[in-house]
Specification:
The protein is mainly β. The chain is 11% helix and 31% strand. A five-stranded mixed beta sheet has the order 2-1-5-3-4, with no helix packed on it. β1 and β2 form a beta hairpin. This is Sulfur carrier protein.
Amino acid sequence: MKITVNGEPREISTTSLEDALRELGYGEAKVATAVNEAFVAAPARSGMTLEPGDRLEVVTPRQGG
């Protein structure tokens, strides 16, 4: 299924947001996620179903100043 991840087109084989994060290499990383500009909390990811054309944003925390 084709979705957009952080502005880049990507092909994934799952519809679950939780599984998509694993497939995309985020595994158990602490990240913030939004689907179609709507924040998705970590506990809700397993129940979130992605659709073709969805826009996924994944933000990783950074340190520094």
